[in-house]
Amino acid sequence: MEFRETPPAPALRFQVLGPVQAWLDGKQLALGSPQQQAVLTMLLLHAGRPVTTQDLVDGLWGDRPPAQAVAALRTYVSRLRTVIEPRREVRRPAEFLVSVADGYALNIPGEALDAAVVERLASEAATARNGGDLDEAHRILVRALALFSGRPLTGIPGPYADTQRLRLAERQISVAEDRCAVALEIGLHAEVVGELNSLTAEHPLRERLRELLMLGLYRCGRQAEALGVYTDTRKLLIDELGVEPGTGLSAIHARILAADPALDLPAVVAAPVPAREEGPSAPPPPAQLPADVSDFSGRTELVGELSAVLLNATGQAVVVTSLAGIGGVGKTTLAVHVAHRVRAEFPDGQLYVDLQGAGASPADPAVVLGDFLHTLGATENPESLEQRAALYRSLLASRRMLILLDNAQDAEQIRPLIPGVSSCAVLATSRSRLAGIPGAHLVDVEELTPDEALALFSAIVGEQRVAAEPEAAMAVVTACGFLPLAVRIAAARLASRPRWSVSDLARRLADQRRRLDELQLGNLAVETTIGLGYGQLSPAEARAFRLLSVVDSPDLPLTAVTALLGVDGLVAEDLAEALVEANMLESFSPGRYRYHDLLRLYAQRQNERMGDIEEQQAAVRRLLGLLLPTVRNAAQAIEPDDQLPEPLNPLGSPGLVFPTSGSAREWLRTETSLLHSTVEAAVHGPAELLRPAVDLLVVLHSLVEDPTHGPRARRMLETADRNAESYGDSATLARVHFAFGSLQSITIDFQNAEQSLRKSLDLQDAEDMTVIRSMVANTLGVMLMFSNRSAEALPFLEQALSISRVVGAPIGEARLLGNIARAQLGLKQIEQAVRSVTEAVATARASKNGPCLADTLYQLGVVLSSADEPGTAVGHLRESHRLYQSQQNRLREGYTLARLSSSLLAAGQQAEAAETAEESLAIGLEMDSAYCQGLANAALGEALLGLAQPARGLACLREAHAVFTRLGVPEASPVADLISQQHTEPFPPPAP
After folding, report:
1. What are phi and psi for residue 320, nearest 5 degrees?
2. Distance CA 253, CA 260 (A)
3. Sign of torsion over alpha carbons 322, 326, 330, 336
4. What are the helix (H) ranges across 639-660?
5. Which end of the chain is more exposed for a tag (fewer CB within 10 A), N or C?
6. Predicted confidence (pLDDT) per residue in 41-91, tens digit
7. What is the distance between the alpha carbons of residues 69 and 74, in angstroms, rounded to a whole number?
8. How far apart, in whole angstroms, are the C-alpha atoms of residue 764 and residue 648?
9. pLDDT digits (tens, 9 = 90+) for 849-883
């Protein structure tokens, strides 16, 4: 849940009192790996003070840092800057995470960090307490405790985090002690005893908690138990520490034995309450709350927030708090838990009713009122709803009661059940948001955090079983989508099967087709719970709920929703918002929608049951009809004059249009998962879906060169290959093999890449003068060139150049001239190579195409560096790097920096060469590009040798040699020669 405090809250907020989290303008940020979060934690807890690079390395890795610790640290800082300031322009200095001397500082307002807010609240509470305003002090401390959302710094690695975790945990218990002490001072001893029991169990050696528990028990009239606490504590202290209790604990023990009157609360003069007539034996106050669960876990912040709202209600109107969320998210469990926590504040009782709003027959408010009136002792029961509601309000006018309205259908159902006075409070739960109640406090109940889900699972299964298989346990709660009902069912199944391991259950849940079947036990079933919500949908809403699941994307923009449903935009938005209102979809930002994982599985199962394959395929076809032309438009916005491969089928729509290259790149970054998910859905379908899907993949891979997408793309292409083969579609097969070859080239799998690309050419007519044939020939030529087979590469590159000139593609022509120059360089044709690449740069500059110019400048830099002109090469490579930076092409940035480092080294600038190589290595690690890492390590190693750091330099060179040898590229040989020059003994061959 998002950390919020006193408004106006800063746009950027951070949480460390639990899992480390951050929000920007209310939207949660993805903070990256645990190590990256550890860096953020160190900067946050230094409160704007600079932290040196060495301190960050020590705090993250201690005395065992990795070889590339500084480079990795810079990568983490760079990524954090991008996350914290996503709209920061390239090259513009960071506003928050700034470089300071030899380190960094994070400059944020104090109110942006939950730990800082706790310190402020604790200070305010102390001031209020010293001034005699105990009620205010208590309210402030409740707010402070609500900011702790579990174990501080959950999952953050490193010695610094370990130390701070202990400090923050100590602060949490200190604030809890203060809250309990103040609660005892204002007479909340009955409420606080349970909490003190839990706290003393968690911290058995903390004497201050034992003192407070003894006082609370004594004031509850439980003197024997209070004395028993002292006896148990004394024995524990002697057994564990060999010491007697301290003076505070001994003093409270003696005072209880002496029945010291000062231990009793001072008398409080209560305000007169209007008398109400009662019979000779007034019935006890109603206490209808269901039992609280003993294993309630997590939601600390939300429980604190809800408790504070119910306890601190003021004003003229009754407080109505509504909890909304999907079925199984734990709304009822949470509401009952909170109600029990605050029930002591409602001395006239608590009413409860299950309104059955998710079922086929929701409860009639008139019938519910009749039951409530009977409970309240009414001797009459009017006929009409209005008369019953009026009598109900009259009976509650002089009472302070809590009314829990569970499982409401809508606002109309609960409106007659709301009292008319502010002395009462209403807590309602519903699958939809009850926005129709004026002034209602609306709360969306979300899934548990991973740690909370794991805690619930452990409480049911047993901590020992979970501790023995922590990874399997996390896999189980992840498969449950962190939904409390699903976690409870899974845990209960495991608890009832002692011969099962946690891994056995994880394997059963890993099968998505059977997951819903596995998540049922007795009369509890996730599928049944979701089905209740599905049954409340209109036919149009139910159709939308099903169809939006045919593409397995993490989320969907409204344009995709519109295409899938085949309706106009306004209707699509109304349907999507209706599903959000019913908590069958989620929307965390305007115009974007997503399923909870288990709801997606339920929707897909409904598609199977409906059996309407044609409608589902039509939905995918409409989405492809939007996405394929949109991706082509993005390509044209990024490179306006570039030629795109001819589509296999005519395009069905104009697609979305992008005014700038930046907007096109942003769309591609945002929708990459949607694009891949759509292709995944389509490649399993008929030829009319397969063709545009393969076209989409080919264009997408020319725009997004990211090796991390490789495994997913490979699976899609394998499916497309089988289906295209079965359809006898050679044109589609040719593109599938081209996409395979491109992917294998990026991952430096040159042997398989060559086979795939040659297959693609064989499937095309040798006389074809098409863009796609030119692209295949060029890719094959480049791959052969990097395999040190420039003589074989040159004919393919020249063939591609001829086609490019025929189809009129100057951008392609410029890139091909650059590639031909590299092949000529491999053949030692230095002068020809310089001429070719110079012509390439001139053509690119004339076209005003930024990406093409960056590519050709890169080639020019490489050629000039090999032609013994490193000084000139440096200037071109710097320009190329600036262009790639502005285009946000991270992988090409990494390559260019590695080449720039080598040129700087040749120009005698070892220090700058080393720094540049470090930057390249960080990008290579970030992008998981082995070739980039090899180039960077080779340049860094040679630079370090020149800087008289032979041990570190040799380590980098050996790493580069291992990478190049594994990839089978010719760069391995010169690196091996360089290593051999540093040794008297022969250089050992690489391990097989």
Report:
1. -115, 120
2. 10
3. positive
4. none
5. C
6. 999 999 888 999 999 999 998 888 887 888 888 888 888 888 888 877 655
7. 9
8. 13
9. 888 899 999 999 999 988 889 889 999 999 999 99
